[in-house]
Amino acid sequence: MLNQIPIEFNSDLDEFHQCNPSKSDSTATPSLFDNTISSKVLCSQLFEDHLNQDDDEFESLNKQLQGVLLTDNYRPQLIQAFQTDMSSYLSHEKLTKNSRRMQQEYEQANNKEREYVFNTYIKNNIINLSLDKYQHYILEKIIEIGPINFRNIILDQMFAFIKKLVTDLHACKVIQKGFEIMSLYSTESRSQYQKYINFILEENNFTRRLYTDKIGNQLYQKSLDVFEEHNLDQLLRIFDKYILNQNEYSLELSTDQYGCLLVNKIIDIFPKLIDQNTKSKANQIIMRTIQNSSCLIRRQYANYIIQQILERGQEIHKRILLDDFLIKDFVSMSMDKYGSNVAEKAIVYAGQQWRQKLWEEEVSVSESSFRKLVNDQYANYPIQRLYEYLSIEYRNEFIALLNRLHDSHFLNHHGQIVLKFSLSNYNVKRFAQKVNSNETTKPTKLQEKNKQLQQIYEQKQKMNSNQMQYQQYLQQQQLMAQQNQWFSQQQQQQQQQFKSPIEFQQYQAMLLQQTMMMYQLQQQIISPQLQQSSQHQQQQFAFQKSLQPQDQGNQQAQNYYYQLQCFQQMNQNQQE
């Protein structure tokens, strides 16, 4: 029986036509196999259509991106920096590096890149970025050097959530940076600047809590720095109610951990104030703190206000504080835990006359008061500081009192420390001399650098002058050697022409006169030391000539001959 030859399809398309009943002439119901094949074909076609559609969208996006960035000098570093920063992080070090890279690339980017980055990564994510530990720096950079419209968008969105952001550590820095830039360019962000001013000058329960808040307090410190006179006067009037004044809210800024920073800032900005009303209001606050200094120096945080007056306050405020309050209260405040810090600062910044008055009227007035100070656990520190600033005369009195207490066994552990300190530092240069000299004649770093450069320049000039003199000396030696050679040749030639020695000596004398005239012209480039040595040699040979007996013959020719010998001997000495 013959084997039946199988049917062979020429192509996949023929197989599809035969298996698909919709494409054939048969009217029979399609089988399960037929349905499966047709569904696979339809799915493949749909997949290809989706791929083509995605390719078209991708090409359109590329064209849009090229239209935004490639029209100018394209710098992909900024885009890469933001893409890297928005991805997941591996370590703390990578976070810091990426944040710095973003700021550096933003400074160098052009306007097209900055616009693309802002619209893509920043605009819809401002609040979250301001709360981030590292990404809030890029907002500060945009506010500082970015376009004006970007700055205004950031400040507007942050003002909408200011009650939440003003107490956040990172977002508050962004607000402070924006506030500082707006104060410099108030016309460019007029509406935004006025919103923040109204918020700061508004007095309600929320803002009162910010006066003593760890983070919100920083915004008010910045306001004292950047406010203009009119707004600053209003802010000082608000603070005046809560600084050593009774109020219905029982709010006291001077004794608060963070409220005292506002008082310190008022003391710091006082010399910069111009408006008389504002200056008088600040002066009232400072004088009120001085009048209450006996209470403030014993408080944990308020004592820093008194230290601020001693360090950075005006001289008139400092003198009133020292002469009228601190010198009378020195013994008691030195024995206080916090007052001893103020006592040390008073000794350092008071001046020599005040220290002498303190030693004579308060410290050494009686042995009991001195013993009380050196044996106290807190007062022994200001006493050691006082010893450093005393003169030799008062130091001798200081050590004599200590030795008397030591012999009487009245020194405890703290008193023994003071005794050892005073004995070991008796002959050491006083620290007070360093401080006083630094305050009066301390040169700035620029002056020191200029002085060093001047010294280096003078050394170079000196070296150059010495080198030039040495070169001139060498040139002179070469010229003298050439002259001596020429003179010897002329002497040999002329000696053969003259018959008698006397005629030859007369001719030599004439040549000597010409040579001496040339030598006088060359004396200007010879160093003074060589001139002195040449004069000394001439005197020496003249003296030897006077001692030698004169030969018979022409006396004038013989004198010229001796001068010629002196000149030759001088040239030989110079060559040596």
Write the layout of secondary structure elements.
Elements lengths: L11 H8 L12 H38 L6 H11 L5 H17 L2 H12 L3 H6 L4 H10 L2 H13 L1 H4 L3 H16 L5 H12 L3 H7 L4 H11 L2 H12 L18 H11 L6 H16 L1 H4 L6 H10 L2 H12 L3 H5 L4 H12 L1 H12 L3 H8 L5 H10 L2 H16 L5 H12 L6 H11 L3 H53 L3 H22 L5 H20 L7 H21 L1
Describe this protein with a few key phrases.
single chain, 576 residues, mainly alpha, Leucine-rich Repeat Variant, 31 helices, flat, disordered N terminus
Under CATH, the homologous superfamily of one domain reads Leucine-rich Repeat Variant
Contiguous low-pLDDT stretches (5 residues minimum) are 1-34, 68-74, 543-554
Instruction: Let me know the number of strands.
Output: 0
Q: Estimate the global geometry from the Cα principal axes.
A: flat
In terms of DSSP E residues, the strand content is under 5%
> What is the CA-atom radius of gyration, in angstroms?
48 Å
Structural class of the secondary elements? mainly alpha
Fraction of residues in H or I helices: over 70%
Largest sheet: none
Mean pLDDT comes to 79
- CATH structural fold name of one domain: Leucine-rich Repeat Variant
CATH architecture classification of one domain: Alpha Horseshoe
Give the class-level CATH name of one domain.
Answer: Mainly Alpha
Number of helices: 31
Distance, first to last CA: 137 Å
Give your account of this protein's structure.
The chain is an all-alpha fold. It is built from 31 helices and no strands. Helix 30 runs antiparallel to helix 31. The N terminus is likely disordered. It is flat. 23% of the residues are buried. Among the domains are: 145 residues, Leucine-rich Repeat Variant, CATH 1.25.10; 103 residues, no CATH class; 131 residues, no CATH class. GO terms for molecular function: mRNA binding. Keywords: Repeat. Pfam families: PUF. This is PUM-HD domain-containing protein.
